[in-house]
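Residues and backbone
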Amino acid sequence: MTLKGRVPLDRELRLHGPIPVQPDLAIEVLSPDDQAGRIFERSDFSMRSGVSITWFVDPGSETITVYRPGQAPTVHCPPAVIDAKPVLTDFSLNLRALFAVLYEDEE
């Protein structure tokens, strides 16, 4: 799914203020005090709003939980490599590399 066909045709509307279009991919980085119930509410809101994929990145547990409409959430941890298909067809994210930046100062 792309933005084409979802963005208002009125150029003035596009240039001034927010465009009422949900993203295809939403990524949230969790804070230590985020609670499971609140995360579920945010993922449910994203899915009902038309977001195709939502990632919740948890630096504390070094996991990414992926939500897709009509599917159970999946939890991924290093050394997994995840993708964002069909939204980003040529993109992949190496979780080992992503979370390694948390420990760069310790080396």
Strands lie at 25-29, 53-58, 63-67, 74-76, 81-84, 88-94. The helical segments are 11-15, 36-49, 95-100. The chain has one domain: 23-106. The first strand starts at residue 25 and ends at 29.
